[in-house]
Structure formats: structure tokens, C-alpha cells
Amino acid sequence: DFKNYIDKAYKDLKRNSDFSDSYGFKSPEEFISEIMTNPEFRLSAPIYKSGILDRIVEYIAKIFGYTKNKD
């Protein structure tokens, strides 16, 4: 489930990030907020390489009934 994915990603990335003391690692909720709104946080190497932004966007799209185009 998505919450478990976010919680695990948050813990793993916090443990392995030079940004672990940044505001985005204050809580899982702030983690998602910073990924969605803060380009510097989002583009930090561990977060960018993890693909978490794509997963969040896919989840939001799924809520609204959109699916990935397979073309």
C-alpha cells in the first residue's frame, strides 16, 4: 500500500541522505510535501535516483482515474 511505501522510502532515504537534517525529513508528510514543492530537495541525489516522485505522481493519478499511457 502507498502509505507503507512512503514510510519505508522516508526511513531509508533519511538514513542514507546528506539532507537528513533538512525540513523534508521532519515527518513522512513533510517528506511528500518537500518532494512535490521543493526542487532542491527533490533533485538531491538519493531522492532523484529513488524514483519516488514518479510513484507519488502515479498514485495521485490513480486516485483520479488516470493510468499510464502504454504507447
Describe what this molecule looks like in 3D.
This protein has 71 residues and is an all-alpha fold. 65% of the residues lie in helices and 0% in strands. The protein has 5 helices and no strands. The protein has helices at residues 2-15, 28-37, 39-42, 45-50, 52-63. The longest helix has 14 residues, at 2-15. The protein starts with a helix and ends in an 8-residue tail after the last helix. The model has no long low-confidence stretch (mean pLDDT 84).
- How many individual helices? 5
Q: Give the biggest beta sheet.
A: none
Kindly provide the radius of gyration, computed on alpha-carbon positions and rounded to a whole number of angstroms. Answer: 12 Å
Percent of residues in helices comes to: 55-70%
Quaternary organisation of the protein chains: single chain
Which runs of at least 5 residues are low in confidence (pLDDT < 50)?
Answer: none
Percentage beta strand: under 5%
- Which geometry do the CA atoms define? globular
List keywords for this structure.
71 residues; mainly alpha; globular
Please sum up the structure shown:
By secondary structure, this protein is an all-alpha fold. It is 65% helix and 0% strand. The model has no long low-confidence stretch (mean pLDDT 84).
